[in-house]
Design goal:
The structure holds two protein chains of two kinds.
Chain A (H helix, E strand, L loop, with lengths): L6 E12 L2 E13 L4 E5 L6 H8 L7 E6 L2 E2 L5 H11 E4 L11 H11 L4 H14 L15 H13 L5 E5 L7 H18 L2 E6 L2 H4 L4 E6 L2 E7 L10
Parallel strand pairs in A: 3-8, 3-9, 6-7, 7-8
Antiparallel strand pairs in A: 1-2, 1-4, 4-5, 9-10
Helix pairs in contact in A: 3-4, 3-5, 5-6
Chain B lengths: L1 H30 L4 E6 L5 H7 L5 H9 L3 E16 L2 E10 L1 H11 L4 E4 L8 E4 L3 H5 L8 E4 L2 E9 L5 H4 L2 E4 H8 L7 E6 L5 H18 L8 E5 H44 L1 H9 L4 H41 L10 H27 L3 H6 L2
Classes of the chains: A alpha/beta, B alpha+beta.
Chain lengths: 239, 380
């Protein structure tokens, strides 16, 4: 693969200062993620995988090291530039769904478009299309509290897709769902990967989830211990 | 927020009334020539108690004023609210007694009294003349030559005055002082008096002369509990009124500022709580692309709306109070003033309170915008 990597981490360190104690979460991570890849970052809790995901998603910056998005070193960007990148090029899906409780599904999906200044009629059209494509056409005016876990996560996915980003970053997206619903959500990601050629990065500690993806990065104690393509491509095929 | 309500309430009632009071008082004073001196019972510092408390000048006092050097003529003036009947309709009007024989010339030359219709009454006869607004607003259609009744006695309306620019004067009914005494039963005294300065005398000197003369008169009547007097040239009077109005305004603005400060601190606390309650939401918004200024704008608008709500309450209360005072003042007929309630004033009040809200919310909003998205997302 000689394609220029989409995301590249060079010797990335993240150290938290907790009072007088230093907590090193990431120790010299080197990583390349190519456009259109479907990657799992795996590791036990406390291994630093969430921190790594935050850095890959431009939500956080490392203490040391370089992070490139295409050729742009994000360390050189301002907070607002990073917000702009997150809004336009990256979509987040969280374990806790992180929907705004006071907004209905449609408004939640429109939110990132509001921040990008998309005109209202276009926002509504796009959000309705996304929700319909995720089988939520009848749920658009429901608030998160009126939706099931699987439905909430699909609203969150629709929100992540609203500005049509190249990269989807998902942090334990199935962590709060039962296995059937989790499977359904993973199916959505596979679809996005195959049909829309999105670059998808999933953080998980669940080896079953990792089986869906092409590439698995194992992380432990802040270091990458193995980085390999899945031995067998057992991508879950839609029946 | 109650602080903002009170602050805006004070400011709005102040702004809407003070202009009215100022123009009402000053326009009347400006009508007078410079060689008029006003003599009122009571201290000027208690002007309101003088107006409302019913202190009077005695006939002795008026004689004393007449004796003072440099005084050409004295016009005792007195007035009373009285029921007037015109074609079966009864209304309370302010009846003003003026000594027509000696006072009419001064009224015409120095106070700008002029007729638009009819003639001046003949002193001693049962004739009245009315202010410009009487046939317009109080008894619509009243004409010169018609009859009215005061205390059961018939009088003829013989003249209508040209507007003198103040609603109070334009709504009065004027009558010869002698006839006034006859029908009201007030045998002597006057609410106030005006003295005309002889040509060649300075008004300020004559003011001193009148004061001296009144003091002497009082010494002769030792033992009686007599109120002090206020003697002012018309020029001085407008200065003083202007000063008092200015002082009242400063004081009310002071109170209003404190109230608004308290309100602003209240809004600030509310906003800190609001930011704290929504740390996670802020994290989410940042994660999906909200910039710092977007977060600031969201919270500023929220605090601005708090301010606006407070301001709206203040505007309603303030303008309501102004209107009540206006109605009360008009029904009492001693102080006809108009509360000026303009759209600009309301708009100013709304914009002002919104701004106060925004200023109060700025620090919490800035704090919210500075939150680290990762920490904010983790916050439960």
């Amino acid at each position: 693969m000689n394609v220029e990597p989409l995301i590249k981490l060079e010797n990335v360190w993240k150290i938290y200062q907790l009072g007088k104690v230093e907590l090193t979460v990431l120790r010299g991570i080197n990583l390349e993620i190519h456009p259109g890849a479907f990657v799992t970052i795996m590791g036990p809790s406390g291994s630093g995988k969430s921190t790594l995901m935050h850095i890959v998603g431009c939500l956080d910056v490392p203490t040391k090291g370089k992070v490139f998005l295409e050729k742009q070193n994000i360390m050189e960007l301002s907070e607002d530039d990073l917000a702009q990148i997150r809004g336009q090029r990256i979509g987040f899906v969280f374990q806790q769904f992180n929907l705004l409780q006071s907004l209905n599904a449609l408004e939640n999906v429109m939110l990132p478009m509001v921040f990008q200044g998309v005109p209202e009629n276009k926002r509504i059209k796009r959000a309705k299309e996304l929700l319909t494509s995720l089988d939520l056409g009848k749920r658009i005016y429901h608030r998160p509290s009126e939706l099931s876990g699987g439905e909430r996560q699909r609203v969150a996915i629709a929100r992540a897709l609203s500005n049509n980003p190249e990269i989807i970053v998902a942090d334990e997206p199935t962590g709060n769902l039962d296995s059937t619903t989790g499977k359904m959500i993973m199916e959505v990601f596979i679809d996005l990967h195959k049909k829309e050629k999105k670059t998808i990065i999933v953080v998980t500690h669940d080896p079953h989830i990792a089986e869906y993806t092409e590439e698995v990065i194992n992380i432990m104690d802040g270091q990458i211990v193995s980085n390999h393509l899945a031995k067998e491509k057992v991508l879950w095929e839609k029946q | 927020m109650i602080g903002v309500v009170i602050g805006v309430f004070l400011i709005m009632s102040l702004l809407s009334l003070s202009e009215g009071v100022k123009t009402a008082v000053l326009s009347q004073l400006n009508m007078m020539g410079n060689d008029l001196i006003i003599i009122m019972p009571g201290e000027l510092t208690d002007m309101m108690t003088t107006f409302a408390g019913g202190l009077e000048l005695t006939d002795d006092d008026i004689k004393a004023i007449e004796k003072a050097e440099g005084v050409e003529a004295v016009i005792p003036m007195t007035y009373k609210g009285i029921v007037m009947r015109y074609q079966g309709e009864k209304k309370t009007v302010l009846l003003s007694g003026i000594p027509l024989e000696k006072g009419l010339d001064i009224l015409r030359t120095d106070m700008g009294f002029e007729l638009v219709e009819g003639r001046w009454p003949i002193p001693g006869k049962r004739e009245i003349f009315v202010g410009f607004l009487v046939p317009k607003e109080i008894f619509p259609g009243m004409e010169v030559g018609t009859q009215i009744a005061l205390k059961g006695k018939q009088f003829e309306v013989v003249g209508v005055l040209k507007s003198v620019g103040s609603k109070q004067d334009d709504s009065q009914v004027y009558i010869d002082l002698a006839v006034y005494r006859e029908i009201t039963g007030e045998r002597e005294g006057a609410k106030m008096a005006m003295a005309k300065v002889k040509p060649g005398y300075s008004a300020d000197v004559v003011v001193e002369n009148i004061k001296e003369s009144l003091e002497e008169n009082r010494k002769r009547r030792k033992g009686e509990d007599l109120p002090p007097y206020t003697v002012l040239s018309s020029e001085k009077m407008s200065d003083i009124v202007g000063n008092i109005m200015g002082l009242i305004q400063v004081a009310i603005f002071g109170f209003a500022s404190i109230a608004i400060l308290v309100g602003a601190i209240g809004i600030m606390n509310t906003m800190y709580t609001s930011v704290h309650d929504r740390i996670k939401e802020i994290g989410i918004m940042k994660a999906v692309g909200a910039k710092r200024k977007t977060i600031i704008a969201i919270f500023l608008i929220e605090s601005g709306i708090f301010g606006l709500a407070g301001g709206l309450g203040g505007i309603i209360l303030g303008l309501g109070l102004a209107k009540i005072i206006e109605i009360y003042a008009q029904s009492q007929y001693f102080f006809l003033l108009k509360a000026s309630i303009t759209p600009q004033l309301i708009l100013f009040g709304l914009a002002f309170s919104f701004l106060i809200g925004c200023i109060a919310g700025y620090l919490p909003a800035r704090g919210a915008s500075k939150l680290n998205p990762v920490d904010a997302l983790r916050y439960e």
